[in-house]
Amino acid sequence: MSDNKDIQEENLNPQDDLTQNAPEETTENMTVEPSAEDLLAEEKDRYIRLFAEFENYKKRTTKEKMEFFQYANQDMMISMLDVLDDFERALKEIAKNGNEADLKGVELIYQKLKNKLTEKGLKVIDVKAGDDFNVDFHEAITQIPAPSEDLKGKIVDVIETGYQLSDRVIRFAKVVTGN
């Protein structure tokens, strides 16, 4: 029994536990300082990314400014479309009555107004009977039975002219389609 007691005492010796469990090297606790080249490379990468981000910001704001100036007068253009429509109706009525002097005067004013609006970016959406219906530019007011087979699914009549400001549709052409 004394042999067992000696073995137990050996296992309980605190000095042995410390030496057996102590790590031989303490690399886990040591912090490795990055080298100057690593720090320089990291800062250079951050600088390049920041520079690229700033360039993208400049391009985006420039594009937004250009779009703003391009479409800033959109509300005014939309309000002027009613005046153009009134001129077109007046020209049709004057042409019916046959007064040539009145027709030329009103037509001159109409063309001058239309040219000024065209200079500012207004474009007429060119639509005529027989064209294919396109939802990007046309608004179907109603459908009627097609007068002929070739007009099925196509534009039969144009009720109101459509307009674009630069590349943006500001009023769809109102049309009648055949079915």
Rounded to the nearest angstrom, the distance between the terminal CA atoms is 111 Å
The general outline is elongated
CATH topology of the largest domain: Nucleotide Exchange Factor Grpe, Chain A, domain 2
CATH class of the largest domain: Mainly Beta
Strand residue percentage: 15-25%
* Secondary structural class: alpha+beta
Which CATH architecture of the largest domain?
Roll
The SSE string, one letter per element, is HHHHHEEEEEE
CATH superfamily of the largest domain: Head domain of nucleotide exchange factor GrpE
Question: Helicity level, as a percent range?
Answer: 40-55%
Number of strands: 6
Provide the low-confidence segments as ranges. none
Helical stretch tally = 5
In spatial order, strands of the major sheet run 1-4-5
| Count of separate structural domains | 3
Radius of gyration: 41 Å
Largest sheet features:
3 strands, antiparallel
Mean pLDDT over the full residue set: 84
Task: Please render the helix and strand layout as text.
Layout: H1 2-11, H2 14-21, H3 36-71, H4 74-97, H5 100-119, E1 122-125, E2 138-144, E3 155-160, E4 162-165, E5 168-171, E6 173-178
Parallel strand pairs: 2-6
Antiparallel strand pairs: 1-4, 3-6, 4-5
Helix pairs in contact: 4-5
